[in-house]
Amino acid sequence: MPPILNLGQPVVDPQVTFTPEELSKSFQKYRKELILMPMFAMAAALQHMGHRDGIRYKEHIHEMKGNFEFGNYDKYKKGDGAVQIVQRTLETFFGNCIEPIDPNSIYQTLWGSDVTKGEALKNVDWTKRVCGYIMKKLGENMFLNMWTAKHDPTNTTKTSKWFNGFCTLEDVEIAAGTMTKELRNLYYLPEAFNAQNAEDLINDFFWGDAAAGWLGVHTLLRGQNVKLFMSETVKHYYEVAYQTNHGALPYNLQFNKAHLEGKLNVEFVALPNVPENYLSLTPKGNILALWNLRTADETFLCEKSLTSHYDVDFLANMFYGEQYESINPERLCVARYNGIEQKDYNFTSYGENGTVELANGKASTTGGVKSFSGLKYNEILVKENSVEGFAGNKYFIIGTATANGTTKYALYDAEGHDTGMQVTITPVGS
Questions:
Q1: pTM of the shown model
Q2: 169 sits in which H/E element
Q3: Which of 145, 252, 356, 427 is positioned for an S-S bond with 149, CB 3.0–4.6 A?
Q4: Per-position DSSP letters for 305-347, written without gaps between them
Q5: DSSP code of 304?
Q6: Confidence of residue 358 (pLDDT cuts 50, 70, 90)
């Protein structure tokens, strides 16, 4: 007789029973399938990335840098032989999960979803579904933290503290000065994305923004088959802006944009785990998910609990990490918004500890940021100045939050040295 349907209650097969022995046996039976579940849960991102396995803790890779050119014949010329070999570190972090399972508590609960491969749920035993659900949830949490995770060895419970995500890896490079606007692998968005500006911002990032002194992504990067990673919201804004700007054109029949307009080699990859107001442009083989999957210390077990006669302990150990194979502008360019809107300011500069007025002029925030002595400073570009020699120079100030014309900010040069000058600034038109 089939089970009776009760509104609001799950349908449960009365013949199904759970025991610690059954769970353990089922996990061992399907182990090869189950250990792939985290990858299936991360598939939306992994299909657009390169993969390296056999990485247990750290492995070093090397790339050569240098610039060499043919020129007109000159028997006396001689290059500088500046070949650089740059070392990059691929690092995985060892993590684990230990969870007790009470078979009796899940007896009357429908667990899991269709995460098993090639087999209808009705043909899969319930113990396999339970194990599959747990492995899938582990993968989902890995997926959600792929960009934002930051390794903290003191926190042993959160996936967000297990490995270093792509944004964290970029933070390290930015702090080291190896990702900058001048190197053309870092662009600061002048404002946050919205449905009006998204098309323009993405085009400025890719092709260049003369007003901000941005030359665009490197010519060699533009010509490759590349992935443009973005949040789902940014892609939606781009499509809305595109429809608004070009909807009247007779050949525009649909606005689900899979590529940058006019560049079929630039594929949009919109993911729910990518931060807002962020873009990453790179070939598939340069953005890497790192695994081990080869050694005995990676275990996935379900076995009788050591603390309860009724429970099963689920145990999983895994190595995982991420890295860019190269951060050279020919292979990577990232766009970020740091919350500083690019504006034009009137300013007055002062010397002698802010007591003597030196000059008046105009400057603009560029969106650039540098860290000196642990503090973040905003870059300003002097556009006009009443004293010769100031215009065209870039300086850094501690902030533009008040910009009220009375607060005096210390002025630092590009190396973080105090110039001895101070400035007051007010937004143009205020």
A1: 0.73
A2: helix 166-175
A3: 145
A4: -SS-SS-EEEEEEEEEEEEES--STTT-EEEE--S----EEEE
A5: E
A6: confident
The angle that helices 198-207 and 232-246 make with each other, rounded to 10 degrees, is 100
The pairing of strands 186-188 and 333-336 is: parallel
Q: How far apart are alpha carbons 428 and 430 in whole angstroms?
A: 6
Residues 6 or more apart in contact with residue 15 via CB below 8 angstroms:
none
Whether the Cβ atoms of residue 176 and residue 88 lie closer than 8 Å to each other:
no
Q: Please choose, from the candidates 342, 346, 378, the residue with its C-alpha nearest in 3D space to the C-alpha of residue 359.
A: 346
Helix (H) or strand (E) holding 422: strand 418-427
- 126: burial class by Cβ within 10 Å (0-12, 13-18, 19+)? buried
User: What letter does residue 104 receive in the DSSP assignment?
Assistant: G
Residue 293 CA to residue 159 CA, distance in Å, equals 18
The radius of gyration of the chain's CA atoms, rounded to the nearest angstrom, is 28
- Greatest Cα pair distance, the chain, in angstroms, is 97
For tokens 């009365």, what's the residue? 14
CA 83 to each of CA 25, 76, 218: distance values in angstroms, whole numbers, following the listed order: 57, 21, 20
